[in-house]
Specification:
The protein is α+β, with helices and mostly antiparallel strands and 250 residues long. 17% of the residues lie in helices and 34% in strands. The chain has 2 domains: 83 residues, Pseudouridine synthase (2-Layer Sandwich), CATH 3.30.2350.10; 95 residues, Pseudouridine synthase. The protein has 5 helices and 13 strands. The protein is globular, with a radius of gyration of 18 Å. The protein starts with 13 loop residues before the first strand and ends in a 10-residue tail after the last helix. The mean pLDDT is 93.
Length: 250
Amino acid sequence: MPQPTPNARLRLEIAYEDDAVVIANKAPGMVTEPGASHRADSLLNALVARYGGRILRLGERRDYGLLHRLDRQTSGCVACALTPEAYDAIRAEFEARRVAKRYLAIARGRMRLGTERVERNLLEQRVAAAEGTRLVSVIDKAGKHAATSFEVLATSATHSLVACVPETGRLHQIRVHLAHLGFPIAGDPIYTRGAALLASTKAPEESLGLHAWMLGFAYETKRIETHAAPSRKFLELAAACGLRHASLEG
């Protein structure tokens, strides 16, 4: 990863911060870290503008503090450490799968109210896409173990609001598992019913119905648990789909 340059013009919403860690509410359409096509407009560029040398001193070896990442179209909680000690300790929590994550998803189709768990191995593959090639996940016994729990919170005639808890952290895990159930996420440009890949994948859109709603982990002697309010675009999509629930309120 190239050293991120500060960009104070970018929108930055902070859901939680203390002296050791910050949790941002990433906007949909924003990439998490700088890359070839997004050298100065990522979430990390915005974080460097606010926290400056504290992040840069962590260096590339510690990913300039980034503890995990979200897809460009996915909004919500992204944690970034501000000290080497916090980075090492919280990364260990991620690697040990002791970090609590809860997402909100707007799925196409009317699901039955209740809970369900999907356990299907996922294998990463590179496929042709509008922008050249793209890394995707497919259900394959040869892939890595992946499990996701789902709770249907509300439904309309055409869509469902689903709380998603990924027990593992595979690429596009929630998107693939919901599509496998026959209820792909609204606005998903890659996966359709049955977890099949779209024949001609479109360029990423900003209206994907997926939001990283809650993030929780232990650090030192306290438990940090933060909710990030859904983005305006997510709320507009939910309203257009006829969905109402307390999680969509302020």
